[in-house]
Amino acid sequence: MTTQYWLVKSEPAAYAWADLLRERHTAWTGVRNYQARLHLKAMRRGDRVLFYESVTTKAVVGLAAVARTAFPDVTAGEPGWVAVELTCLRAFPHAVTLAQIKATPALADVALLRQSRLSVMPLRAAEYARIVKLGG
DNA sequence: GCCAACGTTGGC
DNA sequence: GCCAACGTTGGC
What's the domain count of chain A? Predict the structure, then answer.
């Protein structure tokens, strides 16, 4: 099966890219949205995941990969919610800002722009490649 | 089942 | 700090 591409959002105050750099891997818990959950469940080991910091940074700051497919999210108060394990791959030399993404016509359809509140979203291969290229 | 009220996210 | 978007809740 071919590699899939995703983007996850996090408020740095809750969990920052720097935290993932330090820990090297983390359980991506706390997702409480049905659409985002569908995306988590569709992730496979080795899929590439862009890490977007919202609110303060507003930029894609690094690249991670799926290390473990969906498993029960122990931080949820009720059953049914899932987490995945992410592993840190590398930081981007140049953070790809929201403004840059908005200014790139090829990225006009990314869910980050279309659905501002979705926290886990798929990316087309071409969209992923463009963002990685911008990140350096 | 509809819809108003409310809470959260996240950009500006 | 404000506000738009939007998901959830609860009354009817």
Answer: 1
